[in-house]
Structure to design on (418 residues):
């Protein structure tokens, strides 16, 4: 299991500071959707240069032109990009095609997808590398969590899973039991006064050390 | 009816050149989704400064944190931002809330929404300013066009409509007959050797002069 730090601040300097502080404890740097829209592709290049040992995920949440968006993101240094499960199937295929072409990976984000198990099976066959089980922030504020979806999809589909959605020290143990490939944590690290300490505590729950 | 130029090149200089060339004929500058992800919010500020007479739309295609993404975009100078119809209803509400707060406008993009008329009625009640009838590029490549959806939604819902999806000189007359508030043209202008000439011809079909 890997720990992915979801960074949803808006500026490059804040993003750098968060990664620098938590560097020892995280495996995957996620440039969040609001952050990539705010700072642009230049940030992907900088992160690649500054943190070469980390896996770099860009949360493009692509809804159209899957191949076009993924291409420039991989060329800038991303290892994984995301595409929306609610997108047209041809958009998902385009993202996967770009990932294969670059020797990189595609994650299909299940946010707001009605039948997650059915789509997970379908994109698994199409060659997606990960499926993301994801309750959005606007959904968390309305009381949703990703746990039940994670249980259902992990039981029914053999594809590496990433799980995201308000995961914190109170909720992480139930997630860890289901052994997803990637556990995504944002606010429970980035929103604290001491992100380093928070990352250390979260990493310990995931890795037992 | 207004003409919106959808700009899906990837660099600021190419985008500036396209607007400069077509300036006389377009009403709305659209910073496309791949372009905002590539160049970031700085481009919104530059467009605002350089083309103060134009309406500026940023195609955020927001899928989560509706208010958060719209806020920084309006603060940078956007007049209209987009949110995905396939997003959680709370995300759509967040974008609308931000628009009202800034005295600006929210457009709900119907790309890949199963029941467009039902959602258009719903977001109209919630205070959305526009509904976007939109066949994505990956959908156009699979043979789809926005015309039948435009007919159905315009017949059933009283909300200003924007229509997008491969519109060109061959297809625009059927769109114009239905009198949408905004006609979005991308490749039929930006993909030609002479964007100025193409914009002039398209504008003439829309405005009759």
């Amino acid at each position: 299991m890997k720990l992915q730090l979801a960074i949803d601040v808006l500026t490059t300097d804040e993003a750098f500071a968060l990664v620098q502080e938590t560097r020892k404890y995280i495996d995957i740097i996620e440039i969040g959707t609001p952050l990539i829209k705010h700072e642009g592709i230049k940030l992907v290049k900088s992160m690649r240069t500054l943190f070469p040992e980390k896996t770099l995920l860009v949360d493009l949440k692509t809804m159209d032109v899957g191949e076009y968006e993924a291409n420039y993101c991989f060329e800038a240094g991303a290892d994984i990009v995301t595409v929306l499960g609610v997108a047209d199937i041809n958009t998902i295929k385009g993202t996967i095609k770009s990932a294969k072409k670059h020797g990189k990976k595609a994650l299909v984000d299940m946010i707001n997808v009605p039948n997650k198990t059915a789509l997970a099976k379908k994109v698994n066959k199409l060659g997606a590398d990960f499926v993301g089980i994801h309750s959005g922030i606007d959904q968390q504020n309305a009381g949703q969590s990703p746990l039940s979806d994670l249980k259902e999809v992990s039981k029914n589909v053999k594809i590496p899973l990433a799980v995201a959605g308000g995961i914190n020290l109170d909720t992480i143990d139930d997630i860890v039991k289901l052994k997803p490939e990637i556990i995504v944590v944002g606010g429970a690290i980035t929103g604290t006064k001491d992100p380093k300490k928070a990352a250390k505590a979260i990493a310990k729950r995931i890795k037992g050390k």
About this structure: Chain A has a mean pLDDT of 97. The first strand of chain A starts at residue 2 and ends at 7. Strands of chain A lie at 2-7, 28-31, 55-62, 80-84, 105-109, 130-134, 161-164, 182-185. Residues 89-102 of chain A form the longest helix (14 residues).
